[in-house]
Amino acid sequence: MAGAVAYEEQRRRQVEENRRKLDQLKLHHLSAALRDAAAAPRPSPAKSAKRKPRGPPPADAPPRRSGRVASLPEQPNYRFEDTYADIKKSIRGSRTHSTRTDLIDRVYATEEARTHATDKAEQLQAKLDPSHPSFVKPMTQSHVTGGFWLGLPKQFCTKHLPKRDEWITLVDEKGAESDSYYLVRKWGLSAQWKAFAINHKLVDGDCLVFERIHQTRFKVHIFRQSSYYE
């Protein structure tokens, strides 16, 4: 018990000695000052910097332009009225060359007219010689305008068409012949199909029956979507 009392007394004297030394060094005052300084908000250097007022440019100063367009002869025209006039002029000029790729020359078939032409084609196909393989192909815009690409049924191609790229002869109902190049890897007609489509005035909604009368020779039966209105 006496040892515990002596230990507590020694501890009390040590604490008082440490407090006296801290008071001499004034460390607690320095700690409080640092804590207050860290808590105080600091003004932003960017906000504290004063910007010089910018006056109007001289009357003879050139307009400011980026380096990318500074060398161009004149500034671009962003007025819609002028741009629209240029577009109309371009369209009028392109129509003088009789091109079917112009969007304003396209024909958009109704679902009724499209179905009418397809039904007529399927009725004819049912009457054809079974020894002549055939398929029905309705026309869309990509077949008769723009890209002029005619994809063929894959199953028909693998079963009845050559295993390599080859010219295919198309014979219309009047006996006129034209050639088109068959691409075996894409299962479709590419080169010269455009000429066939234009010469026969094919439009969106028309429907064709391709009847193979020889290994690389097809008779093409054309059914017009416009016949729906007749």
TrEMBL record:
Domain of life of the organism encoding this protein: Eukaryota
Keyword Transcription: yes
Gene3D superfamilies: DNA-binding pseudobarrel domain
Keyword Oxidoreductase appears in the UniProt entry: no
Keywords: DNA-binding, Nucleus, Transcription, Transcription regulation
Residue span, TF-B3 domain: 135-226
InterPro entries recorded: B3_DNA-bd, DNA-bd_pseudobarrel_sf, REM16-like
Compositionally skewed regions (Basic and acidic residues) per UniProt: 8-26
Region annotation Disordered: where it falls in the sequence: 1-77
CDD domains linked to this entry: B3_DNA
Subcellular location as annotated: Nucleus
PROSITE patterns membership: B3
Main location: nucleus
Compositionally biased intervals (Low complexity): 31-47
GO MF terms held by the record: DNA binding
GO cellular component, one term: nucleus
Matches recorded under SMART domains: B3
Protein name from the UniProt record: TF-B3 domain-containing protein
Organism: Triticum aestivum
